């Protein structure tokens, strides 16, 4: 890890981030980072506890002169999205993130950086460790598994926290203050199929779709980025329709909350169609790259000859699945009628796996309106059930309803304008912040979310702005000094 990171300003923030990023912390594998955080709190001599699901809470008394202020909860999640470039040799389970500086940006070296939400965690750690930062009575809440189900927030029991105000540090534009977010539900389609012998007189190909930007499947779903699973299905559908292409395997996408960057498929085509298939494939690949060239200049689509596979997918099932994937909605479904430029409802076809007689298709459907979320989930369900799939809804979590009259919002708006001589954007985001879930057990807690500028979250292009971190840190310190009195 570059020692240059530790010399960046503000040093308290970047040093704690470097400490955190030395600890592996994939979602659902947070044992090491939980132990790290427990040790951190205990070494400071602060009340430190782990709840029954693995969330860590560290409590620090108010500094001198701040005892009459409302108690606050500063909250961020410990886990991170683990994505890497195909040519990067890295084990997220055992290795800390290798960070590099590129101009105004801190990046991972071929991997996600973990600034989402590591910079929030590091901020809270720096405040807990400080001896000269004024703040009211503070409860630090470090949740687990935010990225793959929000089970930490869901499992947090009422009564553990006494704070009246929650500062969530998990947004990614430093000129915005979030007061609402989308809820979500996982839509998973499964079915089995009979494997059939590879037809005689065929040639096999390895089809590759790669080089896409990927990104956050909520915050960047409106950006027009390519979805590797949809692109691959378009290629397979065309090959089947025109040349009787048969599918052996598909391995597309990764995490449900990341726009899929890559997809790979093994297929066979009758030898008599070899030249025509190659010509048609290259023409279609060229058209797709032309369509997406502005947003996806590095898109690569290839079909390379390989050895024949052992089996192919049952013909009728293949036809149904490719049609269902074509019909299944991906991207923005509806824009908000109440807030300008806010995506209300969307879907990400995140993962497609066809192998060994099994099909699995994983989607994440998001919406700030519960009824609209269910509407789109049912539309996806209908598409996949028509192809003979069993469809499961799981991991549903609520959105966070905006409160434009929030008292802590007024504090942040005022202090932002005083510090930076401009008004902040007061927004709701199309991502799954934990505030809505936490509010179920703490309904009277006044909540707000803000953070430093982070780009490309959930992809190996994730990067955190150094200058923005300086601005954000200044804002954090000012907020802590101006928490309202009890």
From TrEMBL:
Keywords assigned by UniProt, alphabetized: Cobalt, Hydrolase, Metal-binding, Metalloprotease, Protease, Zinc
InterPro entries xref list: Peptidase_M20 (IPR002933), Peptidase_M20_dimer (IPR011650), Peptidase_M20C (IPR001160)
Top-level taxon: Bacteria
Stored SUPFAM superfamilies: Zn-dependent exopeptidases (SSF53187)
BP term (GO), one: proteolysis
EC class name: hydrolase
Gene3D superfamilies: Zn peptidases (3.40.630.10)
Cofactor annotation: Co(2+); Zn(2+)
A GO cellular component annotation in the UniProt record: cytosol
Start and end residues of each Peptidase M20 dimerisation domain: 208-293
Family: Belongs to the peptidase M20C family.
Name assigned to this protein: Cytosol non-specific dipeptidase
Species: Pustulibacterium marinum
